[in-house]
Amino acid sequence: MSQQDKSQYYVPAQSPWPIVGACAFFLIAFGAGHMVADLQDPQASQWGSLLLIAGVLVLFIMLAGWFKDQINESRSGLHNRQLGISYRQGMLWFIFSEIMFFAAFFGALLYLRVIAVPWLGGDSNNAMTHAVLWPDFVPQWPLTETPDGTKTQAMGYWGLPLINTVILLTSSVTIHFADLGLKKGNRKQLSSMLFITILLGIGFLFLQVEEYIHAYQDLGLTLSSGVYGNTFFMLTGFHGLHVTLGTLFLLVMWLRIVRGHFSSENHFAFLAASWYWHFVDIVWLCLFLFVYVL
Amino acid sequence: MNSVASTTTQDTDDHGPAKGIKRWLFTTNHKDIGTLYLWFAFIMFLTGGAMAMVIRAELFQPGLQIVEPHFFNQMTTVHGLIMVFGAVMPAFTGLANWMIPIMIGAPDMALPRMNNLSFWILPFAFTILLASLFVEGGGPAFGWTFYAPLSTTYSGDSTALFVFSVHIMGISSIMGAINVIVTICNMRAPGMTWMKMPLFVWTWLITAFLLIAVMPVLAGAVTMVLTDKYFGTSFFDAAGGGDPVMFQHIFWFFGHPEVYIMILPAFGIISTIVPTFSRKPLFGYSSMVYATASIALLSFIVWAHHMFTTGMPVYAELFFMYCTMLISVPTGVKVFNWVATMWRGAISYEVPMMFSVAFIVLFTFGGFSGLMLAITPVDFQYHDTYFVVAHFHYVLVTGAIFSLIAATYYWLPKWTGVMYDLVLAKWHFWCSLISVNLLFFPMHFIGLAGMPRRIPDYSIQFAGWNQLISIGGFAFGLSQLIFLVLVIKACRKRGAVVNHQVWDGAKGLEWQLPSPAPYHTFEKPPKIE
Amino acid sequence: MVSSAQRVLLLCLFTGIQVLPAAASESSINLRKGVTDISHQVYDLHMTIFYICVVIALLVFGVMLYAMVFHRKSRGAKPANFHESIKVEIAWTIVPFLILIAMAVPATSTLIDMEDASQADLTIRVTGSQWKWHYQYHGHGIEFYSLLDTPMEQIQNKWIKGDDYLLEVDKPLIIPTERKVRFLMTSDDVIHSWWVPDFAVKKDANPGFINEAWTRVNEAGIYRGQCAELCGKDHGFMPIVVKAVPPAEFDSWMLQQKEFIRQAKAEEQRLLAMSMSFDELMAEGEKVYGAYCAACHQPNGAGLPGVFPGLINSVVTRGPVADHIEIVLNGKNGTAMQAFAKQLTLKQLAAVITYERNAWGMNSGDIVQPKDVHLHKQGQ
User: Which of A6, B360, C208, C300 is the most buried if burial means most Cβ atoms within 10 Å?
Assistant: First the structure.
């Protein structure tokens, strides 16, 4: 197979990994479905969670095996330029789908803030909503008191959020320098800059946890404290999840770089990781603006 | 032409399909995966159809006879979910897998292993969905649109299973769509310029874009349903500052493009078949492309026409009414183009053409009722009645499903190498055509006369029509078994062997390949004149 | 051959034109004209657009049918090779656009009229809940619930179904004719939709929000509708009946209702001072349970596992009486269990709780009196 010529698009032979992946998704979905449904019931059996954990394990095994095959193919020269373009385009469309996922939650935030809360306060064609159903409700954003009277405090943007913004912005710069290092063939710059990026990512996550603790303990701001808490935790939570995945992604890249993988021409995985990281940064900027500042 | 065919055959002699079950489990071949998708979709079509039979059996007479209302609601819900996500969408994806690489002269899909993953998620996702019917309290019973708070605070224990199965269906769709879009953008043979692409490829390109844009929004919507039900959020609960109508906005922001996801590839199929059997090039190729693109773009700004009765301010209602009416312009252009293609052609009525002509007429019926539904003040009367049910079944059954059947009759000889049983095919056509109209046409009447949708029992004034509708429903269901027999026979190579061209008027790269198409095709890109 | 085919074609078109209007006038297959100015406008709009669609369909399908018949290969047709005409394409983009504008103008003005609920003579709050309607006359202190009145036996095909099967309620909504009545729609649980076709009014009842709609009925009569938005198990069993009466009759009805309310209050006071017998409570309780509780908890008290909890030997029916009263009075947040404090009288509440603790073989012997319920209410 290795003597395939580069003018031909490499179509891999049969692979066990996709079906393993599908099984992993099945275990995750079926397990999570049962786990969540049993949350309210303390006497319920734990097999939902066990299935979920098993599913995640299988997923990681699948990813490891799949990428190992792929790396071997790439390093034995089976991939041509056209395949590289397929990977790049695929990654960009994947990032686009992620953007749309966040768009759903940003859209919800916008709707709640501009439409739902003012309407509950009698705006637009909802004068009677306020007068009859929620006469004591004061519309405001952040919504520190919900129509049913749940009180909370808003999270300011000074302090941890601002520091986190600086951290992520810096990490965008460091990964750019890592990229430059790769293109110049400066492996030392590549690995050190990438390492700093990973540290910044971990730092961000650490501070994010601190912020959550602060929210829950000091501000009374929880996931269930009305739509302000809902959007705050869902947006920052999903973003945090993406930072976690991005950091793992970068970590794998760093391990590969230490082993001498990637060249100035052949480095799709690293490129994908850095694109993903930039995407995560941009989402944070939107978050910082719409969730914290405005 | 023939030279392409012969070189490909020689090339593929050395590596055919693997033996046994491993061929299907581990495959990376776009034709295998296309076949899997198509069979899966057909099985789901029969499953969802069986649920429709339960619905129609219960509605055969007024009063409760066969099922309890709660189970009836589960049937309508799961019927909808299965038909949308399990039958129509995978069937189109199957066609895309089979045909797009061939049509653009590519050796396979761009990302073959991911292609297999996209498919194999689906059987698992639907296993979960169907399994949820057996959970205590039953499966999802809140309609396929799962409006909050019926799907949150007031839903059963199986909601979490529903949510996660939709999540993995979405992952499958997104990966499938990425594969299609990358294949089309990156894998075209030299000389296959954008404006030379077959329309089926064009419509799928736009469909794939819509899928990637809106499936994540659906994921967001089900996630909010999950957290509202189980984790104390109040996105859709006014007491916490949320709004149940926001669910509908998010859902239909996904849902309306989703509607076009299910019909744009159908346009592509009809635009392929009609010229073949009119023996005349498609009229207005470029206007077809632009019309498809404008329908797709408009689909992002019309979602709230599903929600005219939710109490939006009047200016919002007007905006969505105007935008929705606009959609009829590019859709009309398409119908006019098909008619102009037939005009002064040399038409013959092979089975794919019969289904295509039926598509044009009956889909247009659905278009007309769609236009009527767009008019907000009258929509207040139509909304949530059987008129709506009639409308979307005309566009989905006699639209999407008929186009899928037409496509199967068109390409099946290419896939199997034999001509299917034409007598059965004609029986299938006439039985389907008559029964489908018996099934869905009277729904317009009872809808206008005031029968709400999603009810297990109705007042006696609707009894006569409902009986007729149920008879049509059973007949349509049975007619599809003819199709099943026909396809199985063709797959077992019972029939006359066909040559590479199959249809004398057919154009396109797929007709340069031998029939059946070899396992690997266009490993070296063909030359496009 | 040519002439016969043409004759068939013409015949098809002709019968189409003949049949459609005749069919449309039959009310069992078309929209009702209704009894308000708005509903007439809506009906006219509906018919106009329908006819426009019919004309377009006849033109397009006529051309297509002609091609299908006369441009057949079997008739020796040779295919032309044209495949583009900018002029034609521009024409069939512009012309539909103009037709749309012609449709949009009347639609816009009707819509603006429909959405203007201001300056109403009477305001009625309509609250949907699983599966009944609650009507409150704003500023008059009159309110009542309206439930399906069709006997279970008819639904289960044991009795012959009546003419108004599934479209009959115990207490219809009474409104005056010739006055502008404004409806404030809301819901206590899921989304419902209040629809009376004869008024051309369909508006969703969203929990936590109020939507407005209005009507001015021209003719006295009884008008029937149904909930239009899927609202759970018994979505098909929550009809709407509106009785429109002349204004004078309406005014006297209002006075009569106020008198009834006064009497009912006096009766409650009287009940508080005395005790009802166990049998009396059980008999009344069975009635109330059938009307208000059985839809979810089922007539046999077993519930629907996984959706609605059973009551036989449950935590509530075997637990302390006070907890039982509490959950019936105020419902349980985050579940389908409604608050019945306002829906039922003290007597009904006491009876149904007594019934739930003694029926289905539980025979706990617990007796709850109206005054117990009253005390519990006061204690809050």
Answer: C208
| Per-residue pLDDT, A226 | 93
Residue B247 CA to residue B227 CA, distance in Å, equals 13
C40 touches chain B (CB under 8 A): no
Quote the CA–CA distance of B506 and A274 in Å, as a whole number: 47
Tokens of A4: 């395939």
Angle at A239 between CA A237 and CA A241, to 5 degrees: 70
Residue boundaries of the structural domains of chain A:
1-79, 86-293
Domains in chain B and their CATH numbers? 2-512 (1.20.210.10)
Nearest Cα to Cα of residue B440 among B390, B375, B507, B386:
B390
Q: Are the CB atoms for C149 and C168 separated by under 8 Å? A: yes
Please identify which of the residues B35, B173, B324, B432 carries the catalytic annotation: B173
Kindly tell me the sign of the dihedral angle through the C-alpha atoms of C207, C213, C214, C215: negative
**ipTM of this complex > 0.90?**
yes
Fold of A86-293: Four Helix Bundle (Hemerythrin (Met), subunit A) (1.20.120)
Tell whether C129 lies on the interface with B, counting CB pairs under 8 A: no
- Read off the pLDDT of each residue in B135-142 and give the average, rounded to a whole number: 91
**How many whole angstroms separate alpha carbon C325 and alpha carbon C317?**
10
The predicted pLDDT at position C380 comes to 60
Q: How does DSSP classify residue B309?
A: G
By residue count, chain A amounts to 294
Round the average pLDDT of chain A to a whole number and report it. 93
Q: Which residues of chain C have a CB within 8 Å of the CB of A128?
A: 184, 210, 212
Name the residue in chain A with its Cα closest to that of C306. Answer: A37
Out of B56, B79, B414, B444, which one is annotated catalytic? B79
**Cβ of B384 and C202 within 8 Å?**
yes
Interface contact B449-C93, CB threshold 8 A? no
Structural domains in chain C, CATH included, are: 2-75+84-114 (1.10.287.90), 122-261 (2.60.40.420), 274-379 (1.10.760.10)
Backbone angles phi, psi at C224, to 5 degrees: -120, 145
A110: helix, strand or coil? helix
Alpha carbon B2 to its chain's center: 35
DSSP secondary structure of C236-285: GG-EEEEEEE-HHHHHHHHHHHHHHHHHHHHHHHHHHHS---HHHHHHHH
Q: How confident is the model at residue B15 (pLDDT cuts 50, 70, 90)?
A: low
CB contact under 8 A, C209 and A132: no
Phi then psi for residue B400, to 5 deg, are -60, -50
CA C280, CA B248: separation in Å to the nearest integer?
48
Element (H, E) at A209: helix A187-214
